[in-house]
Write a structure and sequence with these properties.
single chain, rod-shaped
Amino acid sequence: MCGNIFSCFASCEKVFIHVSLGNTTSERDETDLQSEIESHRVVYDRLDNTGRKLLGSLTSQEDAVMLQRRLDEMNQRWNHLKAKSIAIRNRLESNAEHWNALLLSLRELTEWVIRKDTELSTLGLGPVRGDAASLQKQLDDHKAFRRQLEDKRPIVESNLLSGRQYVASEPPVSDTSDTEALDGDSRYLSAEEQSRELTRSIRREVAKLSEQWNNLIDRSDHWKHRLDEYMTDQDLQLNSKE
């Protein structure tokens, strides 16, 4: 019986050592490693309980000392794995909070860009005409509007960069899921499914914000171009009259 359980200890320790040496280079690696650690919990509990029961029935002091030592070694390795699992879980939860905050920020920026696009439709789509005072007001309106865009530009570009870096660091996900969210409550998704859904959502919002932002900048540039053209035409007319 001791021989069998010592053999089980040896096999279990090999697994623990392999898991403890696992390399993690991405959040997905950490998620997989944590799942692997948790999958061995039942094996450890069963082996620990069997060992302790056997320890109480041994008549050989030498076997009892050896079994106790193997139990202590296994417990030490398992405690190390548990600590590693807890550290990974805390890190994943912290990262998840960070990336969910980024997702919220991307959505808020997209809403801001849409509001500015609506504002631009009111300010810059009408015909460019009027006297010098009217034209100067339109130029001032464009300057103030463009200043708002330039003030927001570092935030938009920083969020887009962070989103693209996150998506690039994660394994590819199905393109077909970018147009619709997963059905059901995300609270009941596994950690891996939540990670995939977060990647989909961030990629979707990055694409949306990038398109909306570029269109807004292009429309602002077009407004300024129309104002400049009108000013040039006005100057030519004045020169021809002189």
